[in-house]
Specification:
The complex is a heterodimer of chains A (229) and B (586). Chain A is of the alpha/beta class. Chain A is built from nine helices and ten strands. Chain A folds into two domains: 161 residues, P-loop containing nucleotide triphosphate hydrolases (Rossmann fold, 3-Layer(aba) Sandwich); 59 residues, no CATH class. Chain A is 34% helix and 27% strand. Chain B has 586 residues and is α/β, with parallel strands linked by helices. Chain B has 24 helices and 14 strands. The chains are: A alpha/beta (229), B alpha/beta (586).
């Protein structure tokens, strides 16, 4: 129960299904404030489904989701957002018809702050977000979450399509968010990037958490073994 | 005979007999409503199956009715038959004229829908105003029944004929939707750009299906007028057009029989209620519609299908693997090492004042993996879009093999042997893995009429088969693509690009969202495809380890221009590349 009182994100026995097909089978997961947690797993393990269920875009079929001590399992996504949940989805999650500046402003982020993270944004304030390249849109979405308040941040495959230098900028930004007391959950395929910033990790398989623990020197090898076909 | 064939035959024989036995009033109503139902089914094929919302379906139906009436009244004994032909011709021509330019110019679906609505508004005005031909406000009345020889059919004969034709039309539409052509239409609806890149001329496909549904609606309009004996301006107007849309929605627009049944059910209910409670039926049906849209947004047919205990099994697609020795890429260039698979020179692409690609030249040799790297926003995806005919260029020339394909549209590139995989998964999410693969396999070589006869089987290239087998996807061929995970979709898309055995493969971030092990497997596969089957592969990637492992040559782009080209080692050592790309000492 301590995690509930302590805030951050706490998921207990979460189940979810698409149509009639169950995808999550009782997931337990916890991200404390000031902590970066990596969620790892193969394709189809249910990671994105878990993110969607935490975000409230997919209804939970059982179990609970707690945000900052409040049971939000049956809240709509908008109310979870107001309670401090920030999500960067895997696809291009920007408002394509709005300018870069307006995309940031909607989330309460300043262009200058976003540009401090990803420099290219500095002179793109007026550009329509939909005309950015794929990677640039992803960075805009990341900056929108990292550079605005919000107690819990979820990133679904944030480094997909980013050049190495920008992957580094994301990891630095995520660490800084945790240092500022935010709870950060990162879903990643790139083990190195994920484990380089994570305090703890979880491994998902077939809709369940099957392994996990604090990140140590041999976590990368251990997980790579488990992910090997 | 399959259950479906028995059901269809029973409807074709049974319903006309029912119309014969039901007497003038009820039989006549059945005939009338069935024609409307068939017309709604035609709308469902255009809207539900193909994604073209038509808010002016009444125009083709009503114009066909006017044409049928005019010939019936003015052309003597042969007039009624000529009227049927004229109805189909007028409906088809009108639909073609409405669709041709908007589809060619790529109007968004909602804009097109509004255009059809305006056409319906105008058509009602014409029907009211062009008195000498349409009879104006009163319409055309006392249209004779169908003449066979010199004598007109009896009322009972006319009813049986009308019902038979309407049922035949519904059966034909339903059959069409289940053919490979129907799947190509659904793929176009789900992802038009991608379907074009598979080798389908989507503009012709959409224009064709729209004109055909218009011709069928016109023909049914002419049948309708033979049945009821008169036509008035209301039949071409927006109220009628809206009714078609509502009926299709009520019956599940994604199906064919559902909208037809909903039309009949609604009209029977409406005519009964109109007799008994004239004042309230309009209000009542309005409430039913609001309720249906709120609580049954998928429509009645899909709701019923979900309730039924036995689910219809998905269409089984037989997938085979072609013989390695036979699988020569369509655009393969048998020439020696000096040959070029794809050659681009001075490509320029601007978006307004912004120059995304600024004079890029690049050549791909058969049998090489060529990686295209660069900072985010360097213009890599735009270059790929230009070369694959998705985005128009402002300058430059490019060819595949020996064919100049500068400015060629996506489908032509696919037919020339250049396959494309997009950055984000873009397969037809409503179709199964097998259907997607089959469409991809047929794309570059298909002919339209062949898609009507094509059985549901496809022989994919060994390369595609390898991807499917490695990813355990062959067992999932009957899974709907929308139910796959992100990474699985990426692999299906890779297999789709490879399915026809292309000579050139353009891949935009093929390993995005894959684990390290999967990435390594894809890398090995690409190397093998290039080196053993002489496919030229251009890959946009960011994963430096992946690039070092697979690339024969690397081109680095920055700010829309080529910064460097060379072997991975050469490019790695280039200080300019390190400065713009990696941005760290590693």
């Amino acid at each position: 129960m301590s995690a509930w009182a302590a805030g951050g994100l706490a998921v207990r026995g979460l189940r979810a299904a698409y149509a009639q097909a169950p995808v999550l089978f009782g997931v337990d997961l916890q991200v404390a404030p000031s902590e970066v947690v990596a969620l790892l797993g193969r394709n189809g393990a249910g990671k994105t489904t878990l993110v969607n269920t935490i975000a409230g875009t997919l209804a939970a079929a059982g179990g609970t989701v707690a945000l900052d001590g409040a049971d939000v399992t049956h809240w709509p996504p908008s109310r979870r957002y107001r309670h401090g949940l920030r999500v960067v989805r895997q696809d291009r999650p920007v408002f394509a018809d709005l300018s870069v500046r307006d995309n940031l402003r909607l989330a309460g982020a300043q262009l200058a702050a976003a540009a401090a993270l990803f420099g290219f944004l500095a002179d793109r304030g007026q550009q329509q977000a939909g005309t950015l390249s794929g990677g640039e849109q992803k960075m805009l979405a990341i900056a929108r979450v990292l550079m605005a308040p919000g107690a819990v941040c979820l990133f679904d495959e944030p480094t997909e399509g980013l050049q190495p230098a920008n992957v580094d900028r994301f990891t630095a930004g995520a660490r800084a968010a945790a240092a500022a007391g935010r709870a950060v959950l990162v879903v990643e395929q790139h083990l190195e990037a994920a484990l380089s910033i994570a305090d703890r990790w979880y491994l998902m398989e077939r809709g369940e958490i099957v392994d996990g623990g604090p990140v140590t020197a041999d976590t990368a090898d251990h997980v790579a073994d488990r992910l090997a076909p | 005979m399959t259950v479906r064939a028995i059901r269809r035959s029973a409807a074709l024989v049974g319903l006309p007999i029912l119309a014969l036995l039901s007497g003038d009033y009820y039989g006549g109503q059945l005939a009338q409503f069935l024609v409307l139902g068939a017309a709604t089914a035609a709308l469902a094929l255009a809207w539900g199956t193909s994604g073209i919302l038509n808010l002016g379906h009444s125009v083709t139906f009503g114009a066909g009715a006017y044409a049928g009436a005019w010939f019936g009244l003015h052309a003597g004994a042969a007039g009624s038959l000529a009227g049927l032909v004229a109805g189909a011709a007028v409906g088809g021509l009108l639909a073609f004229l409405v669709a041709w330019l908007p589809f060619r110019r790529g109007l968004p679906p909602m804009t097109f829908a509004l255009a059809t609505f305006v056409v319906a508004l105008g058509a009602e005005q014409v029907a009211n105003g062009w008195t000498s031909v349409t009879g104006g406000f009163n319409g055309l009345t006392d249209v004779p029944r169908l003449h066979l020889g010199a004598a007109a059919l009896s009322p009972a004969g006319q009813r049986a004929f009308t019902v038979f034709v309407a049922v035949a039309a519904i059966v034909a539409l339903s059959h069409l939707a289940s053919l490979p052509l129907g799947a190509a239409l659904a793929a176009t609806r789900d992802h038009q750009r991608r379907t074009a890149s598979l080798g389908y001329h989507v503009v012709n496909l959409k224009t064709g299906v729209f004109a055909c549904t218009g011709a069928l609606a016109g023909f049914l309009g002419a049948i309708f007028v033979l049945q009821v004996g008169f036509v008035a301006p209301g039949l071409v107007g927006v109220a009628m057009a809206t009714s078609f849309v509502v009926w299709a929605l009520l019956g599940s627009k994604g199906t064919i029989v559902g909208p037809a049944v909903a039309t009949i059910g609604y009209n029977i209910g409406a005519s009964e209620l109109a007799d008994r409670a004239l004042d309230y039926w309009l209000l009542g049906t309005g409430l039913v519609f609001v309720g249906a849209v709120l609580f049954l947004p998928e429509g009645l047919a899909l709701w019923v299908r979900r309730l039924l205990p036995t689910r219809r099994p998905p269409r089984q697609v037989r997938l085979g693997r072609s013989d390695e020795r036979e699988a020569g890429p369509p655009g393969a260039n048998p020439a020696g090492d000096g040959a070029v698979a794809l050659d681009a020179a001075g490509v320029v692409c601007r978006f307004g004042a912004f120059t995304a690609v600024d004079g890029v030249s690049l050549s791909l040799r058969p049998g090489e993996v060529h990686c295209l790297i660069g900072p985010n926003g360097a213009g890599k995806s735009t270059l790929l879009n230009v070369l694959s005919g998705v985005t128009p260029a402002n300058g430059g020339r490019w060819r595949v093999g020996n064919r100049d394909l500068t400015g060629a549209p996506a489908w032509e590139l696919a037919r020339a042997g250049a396959a494309r995989k997009f950055q984000t998964p873009s397969l037809a999410t409503s179709l199964t893995v097998g259907e997607n693969l089959a469409l991809a396999r047929w794309g570059p070589t298909h002919r339209w009429l062949a898609l009507l006869r094509q059985p549901w089987s496809a022989t994919v290239s060994p390369a595609a088969w390898t991807v499917l087998a490695a990813a355990d996807l062959i067992g999932q061929r009957d899974t709907v693509a929308g139910d796959l995970s992100h990474g699985q979709r990426q692999l299906v898309e890779l297999a789709m690009a490879l399915a026809p055995g292309p000579a050139v493969l353009l891949l935009d971030e093929p390993t995005a969202g894959m684990t390290r092990a999967e990435t390594a497997a894809v890398g090995e596969l690409l190397t093998e495809l290039a080196h053993r089957q002489r496919i030229a592969i251009l890959v946009v990637e960011h994963d430096t380890a992946f690039i070092r492992g697979v690339a024969d040559r690397v081109t680095v782009m920055a700010g829309g221009a080529v910064l460097a080209t060379g072997t991975p080692a050469e490019v790695d050592a280039d200080p300019r590349v390190r400065a713009v790309y990696v941005g760290r000492a590693s």
